[in-house]
Amino acid sequence: MSPKDLSTVKFLDKVLDTGVEVLKIEGRARAPEYVKCVTSVYKRGVQACITGSFNKELGEELEAELLSVFNRGFWGGYYLGAKMGEWSEVYGNRATQRKEYIGKVTNYFSKLGVAEILLETGPLNVGDTIVIIGSSTGVVEQTVGELRLEIDSVSSAPKGSTCSVKTTEQVRRSDKLFRIIPA
Predict the structure, then answer these.
(1) Does position 3 have pLDDT exceeding 80, yes or no?
(2) CA proximity to 71, closest of 41, 101, 112
(3) What are phi and psi of 51, to 5 degrees?
(4) What string of H, E and C letters represents the secondary structure of the chain?
(5) How far apart (Å, rounded) are the C-alpha atoms in residues 80 and 91?
(6) Distance CA 152, CA 163 (A)
(7) β-strand 124-125 against 156-157: which pairing, if any?
(8) What is the per-residue pLDDT for 1?
(9) Closest CA to 34 of 65, 74, 3
């Protein structure tokens, strides 16, 4: 049996209306991109509640974002009168996306905001959604806008090559690079 994951984001306004001032978000033993996604989704939901702009459509949109990271399906717990026995029909992960390791950062040029990346397991293409993860860096998610081999701008860099990518935030040597793909 695999229990579904508790998600209150669709009715976050009702939770906060009860006087709740602190939300516990489970992040132990979860990937950094999971923690980033869940905390940013709930932050947006809380801010919408504070400004009075939270509605059913936003709740649905926020839960759809949560589906992109590890989950076993969602349920709202017993908050709204659900009956016992909410179990997932499918064991394990139900995420709509997964990450695929493709390489590591070998250098970062801070004045240019460019990362040099060794592609160890696969190619990298302009338009790919990537995540760079490191213990000091955290999680940097972006779309590859420009890709260079040596000084040449290219649309694709092959496995085994060293390429350069402009990053939206500072990254560090040995940070790992993943491509985000549909699950």
Answers:
(1) no
(2) 41
(3) -85, -5
(4) CCECEECCHHHHHHHHHCCCCCCCCCCCCCCHHHHHHHHHHHHHHHHHHHHCCCCHHHHHHHHHHHCCCCCCCEECCCCCCCCCCCECCCCCCCCCEEEEEEEEEEEEECCCCEEEEEECCCCEECCCEEEEEECCCEEEEEECCCEEECCEEECEECCCCEEEEECCCCCCCCCEEEEEEEC
(5) 25
(6) 10
(7) antiparallel
(8) 43
(9) 65
pTM of the model: 0.62
Pairing status of strand 5-6 against strand 74-75: parallel
The 3-state secondary structure of 18-47 reads CCCCCCCCCCCCCCHHHHHHHHHHHHHHHH
CB within 8 Å of 120: residues ≥ 6 apart? 101, 102, 103, 104, 159, 160
Q: What b/e string do you get for 75-99 counting C-beta neighbours within 10 Å, with b at 16 or more? A: bbeeeeeeeeeeebeeeeebbebeb
| Share of residues in the chain with pLDDT > 90 (%) | 66
**pLDDT, the chain, mean:** 88
